[in-house]
Write a structure and sequence with these properties.
The chain is α+β, with helices and mostly antiparallel strands and 331 residues long. The chain has 8 helices and 6 strands. It has a domain of 223 residues. It is globular.
């Protein structure tokens, strides 16, 4: 039996055996390591390539901030250069006065953003001065006269039944008998609007009480016929809240500002039919009302159509009882 052993094949001449073959090294590994310094511009270019988005966001935010600060500074500079807008005012009449109680009621939403938000609600806005003996009028007579004036104001400006068209007889009955026919004539021709409120057809108030601010002043004097009278001057702003879908602050608020002079003659100087309350004169303006209705003496919600005050002075001036009643009517 013959056995065959493997025989190593001889290596070709001039070529080393496999175990002795040296490892070939690539040419690039044979080169010495070289370093190249990176300049500033190159570093910036590499950084920008790696952080483009982040840098853009930071730079953009910075530009927006600078723009906002510039606009704010420019607005402050412009406001600082503006002269305060003024409007004509009146001086309190001579005599004993009382201002509306300064304690504000919680503001209703519809009055928010207007000066009326700080006014008293309804009857709380009519504060009477202390009753003192004045001229020939005793303290008791002054008390009674002030109470009569306040009652007439409450009915004429705040009573909802009256404003809806009722209670005319009740109101007229508050005055001396000799002046009642004249009072009724005022309601026939629409001239009552300077001292009383009647709502226009379709006009609806909200449930909010009207806001009220003003002054009551009294003094003893004589009328044009020499009759001794207690003169009571009332100067009030009445802010009414009308229903509206406009949510702009003040959009549903109609303002009436009136000044009324009331006379109570001394009973010794007049006949019995003239004893009691008289309305000597009244003047008023309104703002944000419906002009067509207002020309008829009726109050409704409209647009600010009173001309100059809206254009040339702070609209809040219309809420100021000390603002002059000299207003240009553009209705």
């Amino acid at each position: 039996m013959t056995s065959h052993q493997p025989v190593d094949e001889p290596s070709p001449p001039g070529r080393p055996a496999p175990d002795d073959e040296p490892v070939r090294v690539p040419q690039w590994l044979r080169q010495p390591e070289q370093t190249h310094p990176v300049g500033g511009l190159a570093r910036l270019r590499l950084f920008w390539q790696d952080h483009t988005r982040a840098v853009s966001a930071v730079v953009g935010a910075g530009l927006v901030l600078v723009l906002l600060l510039g606009v704010g500074w420019l607005d402050l500079w412009r406001r600082a250069g503006e002269a305060p807008r003024s409007y004509p005012t009146t001086s309190p009449p001579p005599g004993v006065s009382a201002l509306t109680d300064a304690r504000p009621a919680p503001p209703a939403d519809i009055f928010a953003g207007t000066p009326a938000a700080a006014f008293a609600e309804g009857a709380a806005g009519i504060t009477l001065p202390p009753a003192r003996r004045t001229g020939v009028f005793s303290a008791a007579e002054v008390t009674a006269a002030l109470a009569d004036v306040r009652a007439a104001m409450l009915l004429a400006r705040l009573d909802r039944k009256f404003m809806a068209g009722d209670e005319l007889d009740r109101f007229v009955g508050m005055f001396a008998p000799d002046t009642r026919s004249e009072m009724r004539a005022d309601f026939r021709d629409g001239s009552f609007a300077s001292y009383a409120t009647r709502l226009a057809p379709g006009a609806r108030l909200t449930d909010d009480q009207p806001r009220v601010k003003g002054r009551v002043t009294y003094r003893a004097t004589r009328d044009s016929e020499g009759i001794r009278v207690l003169e009571v001057t009332t100067n009030f702003v009445w802010a009414y809240a009308f229903r509206t879908r406009d949510l702009t602050p003040g959009a549903g608020v109609v303002v009436v500002h009136d000044t009324v002079r009331w006379h109570v003659p001394h009973p010794d100087d007049v006949e019995q039919g003239s004893v009691g309350l008289w309305l000597l004169e009244a003047d008023s303006y309104a703002s944000n009302m419906d002009c067509v209705s207002f020309d008829k003496g009726l109050l409704g919600l409209g647009a600010p159509d009173l001309g100059l005050p809206v254009e040339t002075e702070d609209p809040d001036a219309m809420f100021d009882p000390d603002r002059s009643l000299d207003v240009e009517d553009t209705c």
